[in-house]
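Q: What does the predicted 3D structure of Hypp4555 protein look like?
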Amino acid sequence: MVALGSYVVLVVVFLRPSLCFLTEEEILRRVETNVNSPPVNNTRLTTHLIARYQAWWHECSQETNPCQNGGVCTRKVLKGSEVERPPCAPMCVCPMGYSGRHCDKCDWHQVFATERGTGQAVLDAWTAGPDAEVLHEKSLLVEEWATLGIKKVKVVLETSEGEDVEVVFNGENTDKLSWFSKSRLISSPWTDLPGETTNFFSIEGLSHERCRRSFFISHDYNGCPGDTGWMAVVEHGPDAICEWERVPSVELPGILYSNASTYVRWSDESQLGRANRMVIYIKMCR
């Protein structure tokens, strides 16, 4: 499965690979090199692939169309050395968010990932436009968020200390910033979060001269040693205002989280988790 622009995940299933000029692996690899190409719809995708792979594409008949969930069924004839090859088996071009031989699987689709040591501020990367330089793993889909029909969003904090932390949100009718809010929270490992008060719950978080905290879920401020919360991406560096958010420059961004089932004091190292990566996924079905 490979995301291409804003619309499709290309799923290739060859039942008779010996009849195809290009193998499944070759096509997937070539499509993967075009992940950052402009968005395409079905017509433009067909044109793009004809030009790139020297292939003619034919719609399947209704009787032979196995594709579900809006997947487009095509049969193709690939050619090499000016010799036309026989058609390969039907192939489903799946709408974004679906995969499987017949587009019958609704998957989580990664749109962003950051890890310790990347160096670039996560908030800067997340809010950057499509032409900006981004050091993190960022899909162009982020810039088309409101048009994708997103149903759910999942933030995963990957750790080396045990199970990964997963926080799931309702992504319907949101933009790339508004989904991360308490009112849209579906599930998290923190049992007290739905009922507790928060002074920050946003992607933008808090930023001033000696502090930069994004993807920030904060409970309360009680002077730096008494600050409490659930999650924070800290990015100011070793001279940040609070000791708990100071991270060596070579390790930025710092991805902090409560390692308990409730909010914790950020200064309590026994309950403070530090993730290696933060990954954001979207899903098109409920």
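A (community wiki): The structure tokens above were generated from the sequence. The two ends are 20 Å apart (CA to CA). The mean pLDDT is 80.
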